């Protein structure tokens, strides 16, 4: 069964997804088989509206510095980062900490 998650883009990061802050997403993986790395790849290809905006989100194959990543309101560094196994019902939040002035 595919994995259903909620993806949030906050802190102005929603501009990369047509200004939509919250997405209900169905990842095409079986539960217990998808890592956060795979989820990020899926998000990059399916939720970022314009491929030219990919560098705003991804750098060197991972989420770029300056973007706080939370998994169910917990810093992803405490959850294993890219190795975290995504579960049905997870909330994946990406918040830009870089603001213009």
From TrEMBL:
Location in chain, cross-link Glycyl lysine isopeptide (Gly-Lys) (interchain with K-? in acceptor proteins): 101
Record PTM text: C-terminal thiocarboxylation occurs in 2 steps, it is first acyl-adenylated (-COAMP) via the hesA/moeB/thiF part of UBA4, then thiocarboxylated (-COSH) via the rhodanese domain of UBA4.
SUPFAM superfamilies: MoaD/ThiS
Coiled-coil annotated residue ranges, if any: none
Compartments, as annotated in UniProt: Cytoplasm
Pathway the protein contributes to: tRNA modification; 5-methoxycarbonylmethyl-2-thiouridine-tRNA biosynthesis
UniProt entry keywords in alphabetical sequence: Cytoplasm, Isopeptide bond, tRNA processing, Ubl conjugation pathway
Modified residues (1-thioglycine): 101
Family: Belongs to the URM1 family.
PANTHER family: RURM1 PROTEIN
Name of the molecule in the record: Ubiquitin-related modifier 1
Gene transcribed to yield this protein: URM1
